[in-house]
Amino acid sequence: MKKVLLTCLGLLLASPIFAQFSLEQVLSSAFPSELKASPVKNQIAWVFNQTGSRNIFLAEAPDFKPRKLTNYEGDNGQEINSITFLPNGKSLLFIRGGANNSAGEIPNPAELQGTVERAIYKIDLDGKNLKKIVNGAYPKISPNGSTLAYISGGQIWTLNLDSANISPKKLFHSRGSQGSIRWSPDGSKIAFVSSRGDHNFIGVCDIATQQIKYIDPGVDGDIDPTWSPDGKSIAFIRVPFTKDALIFGPERASLPWSIRVVDLTTGLAKEIWKAQKGVGSNFFAGGLVAENHLFWTSDNMIIFPYEGDGWHHLYSVSASGGTAKLLTPDKGEVEYAFLANDKKTVIYNANIGDIDRRHIWSVTASGTPKQITTGQGIEWSPVQTSDGQLAILRSDAKVPARPSVVTSDGKIKDIAPEFIPNDFPINQLVVPQAVMITATDGMQIPAQLFLPKNHKAGEKHPAAIFFHGGSRRQMLLGFNYGEYYHKAYSLNQYLVSQGYIVLSVNYRSGIGYGMEFREAENYGATGASEYNDVVGAGLFLKSREDIDGSKIGLWGGSYGGYLTALGLAKASDLFAAGVDIHGVHDWNVVVKNFIPNYDANKRAEWAKVAYQSSPMPYINSWKSPVLLIHGDDDRNVPFSETVTIAEALRKNDVYMEQLIFPDEVHSFLLYQNWLNAYKATASFFDKFLKKK
């Protein structure tokens, strides 16, 4: 017996020792979102998703001690968003429930019985008087706080919040679908966008008379109406209609977009600025996280995003027209932004100077940018309280997302540290390192490498390569600011704790590295040029002395599932196994999901390239085992994509496992489904990448 014990001890000492923890532990921290500031009190509110239980929390200066405002319990899959403070600072509104699918069904992955709806609620800031107001979305409160405007059935409705008998009424009826509600400064009018399919109009409705007028109507896609401070004019963005425009392919240039201003008294319209032809002429709608892409300042300047130098930067131009001034120079891109209390300064986050992180900055229309936060962290979603206090969300390589405030001396103070559980494995996580890999066509591709603790050179490990979704995403050197990728980062850390080396690849067509990288030639449905990055990542790992080159796996969701499937289908000799989570398998199917009138028969050449850019044509060379994971109420990637690929794999006798979540959407709403998906992923990799 003594000899057996000594032998076992010797084996333990000879085996690698990793900092192990459970998936439950690394997924246990509450994720914050929807950070908002009160307009009259030094208060902030946000949503915490704590293992599937979503609630609104409130904190007030000076100590910003968090207080739970709502009391929804359980992993119920019901989202909370659109937090809106009332101007009196006594109450707020929010939406509970997800958007309907094409069949009109509200998400219900928890199989809740009874009414599941998307509704606007009101609650007092003392936590009392929670009341459902109305079914609807996109709530906008009038400046005096008395009237709620919202969208229902593609039309704008209003109701009087001061009335004891709340009775909603349709403000007006218009063809098309209405959206982008913007109250005038005095609350007498509402500007909106009327979407008509191949063109949009900017409309203005007079509240008293319910009369509407379309200002400067044209044949283009007019968006983002923005009121002048005096309420006498409206600025908006005009994006020329392009008949052949599709998605999932590069758009480096197009018919140039412009900014127009309309004098509401005279009806005269003027183009105050227009993008130059070539670089930056295509409007990148997904680049800025803000209510509007235009900020009309109190000194009559308009600050806006533009890619004229190949990077998503802020510029300013006089509201009367002129030459635009670059405000945020250097390599890096602006993302979250808002107009500060002084109505002259835009506060934003960017990766300028720290390409794989995010920090907070400020700039005026005539000034130079000022960096507010620095260091090894990631900061996003800045807001400002009524006294100028800056609040943000932040994370870093080891500590997950949490709400914080920025002190006057630039230091950051966390305000809800108790929501990171005591057993969260902060000290067991590793700090990823930025690396550059060479794609098979020679392009340099940024990535993050995770090495196990106590890593020893030459000691062989299995490896996992992760591809984010989107593809308009960027993985960072820490917990991501998106909840989906915050969880993905957690799984990568867990795999490292189990002895894997992990490579997270920021493949071409993602954001953060400039327009040319994002709009990479032949990407996606136009040639799958990212496949070069997939193989390059595999060869990068295979060349390392610390990796067993026969034990390299792939995993990712959505666009990452697409690249996983593409890698397994075309390079099963390089990749031993994969986990494909709601991945794209035929671009012609997925494009139609986003553009319903897309007809492959009328776009034969494009459709042929799109199909050849998909995994399906290479199914006969797919040999490696795969785990398929999908929810059958997915509104982004049709569930049929997994049904089709499963049939093809079975016909070719490829080993396949499946994990299907009934009534679940694309970004899983149930914590338990995330946990089950990640446990299945880790188990599948262990089965095929750790076996002898």
From TrEMBL:
The lineage of its organism: Bacteria, Pseudomonadati, Bacteroidota, Cytophagia, Cytophagales. Residues 293-393 form the Dipeptidylpeptidase IV N-terminal domain. This is Acyl-peptide hydrolase. This enzyme catalyzes the hydrolysis of the N-terminal peptide bond of an N-acetylated peptide to generate an N-acetylated amino acid and a peptide with a free N-terminus. It preferentially cleaves off Ac-Ala, Ac-Met and Ac-Ser. Also, involved in the degradation of oxidized and glycated proteins. It holds the Pfam family Peptidase_S9. InterPro entries: 6-blade_b-propeller_TolB-like, AB_hydrolase_fold, Pept_S9_AS, Peptidase_S9_cat, Peptidase_S9B_N, Serine_Prot_S9B/DPPIV, WD40. It comes from Flectobacillus longus. Residues 490-691 form the Peptidase S9 prolyl oligopeptidase catalytic domain. The keyword Hydrolase applies.
